[in-house]
Design goal:
Layout lengths: L12 E3 L5 E3 L4 H6 L9 E14 L12 E8 L2 E4 L3 E2 L4 E15 L12 E10 L2 E12 L17 E3 L1 E2 L10 E3 L1
Antiparallel strand pairs: 1-2, 3-7, 3-12, 4-5, 4-6, 4-8, 8-9, 9-11, 10-12
């Protein structure tokens, strides 16, 4: 290309609301390389409310956590939801709080499940003075297992999530997060 020659048209993407996108000249190769996995499947928005009861079995992670400031973090990519801080007392910490977030689920291609997997990382974090929080233990929580096609209603599903201690080999028992 010579100096002073016109630049190609900028890349653009616009939506007509039907789920189909029109793509500018420079985007064709890019969109072909990363085809959307949920293409052709129906999308549903859900509001999930996780009621955090507390965490037990803190001594399975570290000894001497009594009096430490802790919080729970639910994350998936850029989406991060954090609970308020609570102080550990003995071998447990009580939150009594609700984490709320909106999540888009897509219908599953598999016959035995209604929605495709959507996992969030649930982490038990310890707040530290003048340093970033430290993750003590974590587990994956698949929200698609709790969603149904039925009318929206408040459903309480009591569940305990076993957290795996960070930096330890599999098989070791970690603390338990009550949801």
């Amino acid at each position: 290309r010579r100096l002073g020659s016109p630049l190609p048209a900028p890349c653009s993407a616009s939506s007509s609301g039907s789920g189909k996108f029109s793509v500018g000249l420079g985007m064709k190769r890019f969109t072909k390389a990363i085809a959307h996995k949920a293409e052709g499947r129906e999308a549903f928005k859900f509001e999930f409310k996780l009621e955090l009861a507390g965490v037990t079995g803190l001594d399975r992670v570290l000894k001497g956590l009594d009096g430490s400031s802790m919080f729970v973090q639910a994350s998936r990519g850029a989406k991060v939801v954090v609970s308020k801080r609570a102080t550990a007392a003995g071998n447990a910490v009580t939150f009594d709080e609700t984490l709320s977030f909106i999540c888009t689920l897509y219908t599953s291609k598999k016959a035995d499940t209604a929605f495709s997997e959507k996992s969030f990382r649930m982490g038990l974090m310890m707040a530290q003075d003048r340093r970033p929080p430290r993750e003590l233990a974590s587990a994956e929580l698949n929200l698609a297992t709790f969603a149904t096609f039925e009318a929206a209603e408040k459903r309480f599903i009591g569940r305990e999530l076993n957290l795996a201690p960070r930096g330890r080999k599999g098989g070791e028992a970690g603390p338990t997060l009550g949801l």
